[in-house]
Every structure is written in C-alpha cells, then in structure tokens.
Amino acid sequence: KLIFFVNESIQSFPPSIIPTYDEKTGWSLVGSQLWTNWQGKNQKVSINGSIGGKYTYGFIFNDPWKFGNHVSLRIQAQKVMYKHNFLAYDIKRYFFRSDFGTWYGQKIKAKIGFLLNLETLDNQDKDNILRFNYISIIPSIAYDTRDTYWSPSEGVYWFNILNQNVDLRNYNFYNLLWKSSFSYYTKLSKRSK
Hints:
By secondary structure, this protein is mostly beta strands. The protein has no helices and ten strands. Strands 1-2-3-4-5-6-7-8-9-10 form a ten-stranded antiparallel β-sheet, with no helix packed on it.
C-alpha cells in the first residue's frame, strides 16, 4: 500500500512592520514582504525597507532549481543610508550580490558569490567625500553527513567560507577572510521520536 502526503506551503506571508533598535543608528521601523513558492517553482522573493535611524530598501530573489537539479541562484540588491554615530558623515551604501550553488552527491554543497559594494561617506560640510568601492569573491563549501530530510539529529557538519575583497579605485585595499565551522550532532536520548 502506497500513501502520499502533500503539504502545501504558505504562498505569501502578510506584510510585517517591526520597530528595531541598533546602537549605531538608533530606532528604525522595518518592513518586509515575503513570497514563498513564487510562480509555483519553489522560488522566494522578498522586498524590504526601513525608515528612521537607518533608511534602506532592497530585494532578495532565491531559486534553488534555477539551472537544473540543485543548482541554485540567489540575487540581492540593497541601498542603505544612515548618519555615522560619532563622525560627521552621512553614509550611503549600494550593494549587489549574486550567488550560485550546487550539490555534489548528497553530502557536499559548494557555492560562489560575487558582491559589488559602492559606499560613500559625505561630510556634512561637503568638503571631504570619502569613497569605498570594492568587489568581493566569496566561495564556500559545506560537508554535511546528517540526514536532513528524515533525522538531522546525528552527523557532522563542516562549513568553510572565504571572503576576498579588492578595492576598485586605487587597488590599495585587499583582504582575505576565512571562516570555518565544525559541528558534531548526536542524539542525547536513544528513544525514538
């Protein structure tokens, strides 16, 4: 006997508006709208924005099946504006990021991201404008032995990400960051769920 259970996810969450506080910028009112399973293709689309201490607007698009079986695409674009908390500068930041990811077998997930960041710091007297423009190449790889569908409570999860930033203006800024995380999962109780 074969039995199927079909669970349909919520297509659209209602718009949400939440007050938030940040030590650098103060109080802001943040709003967002999220659509899941957009166009019936398991895509997610989100638009967001804020007013108050920080003014932002942007969108995020995520498609886990864009280029075939488990080849994903994620795009994010955002503008952020706020006053520096102790210097006399207004900060404007535009960034665009795209990520491509794929699975190798059932345990290895690789992703590469590209980020373009354009940032200006305007002095309130307009006599000194600082620009900080860079691109980032962000590859990552994860090794996961957990059974994420049926029982994700046992296994190993190892995640590594590199973040390479290069200045676009005079090439005197360059850095490389490496983050690594290792987790071991085990059941505390041998009882069945």
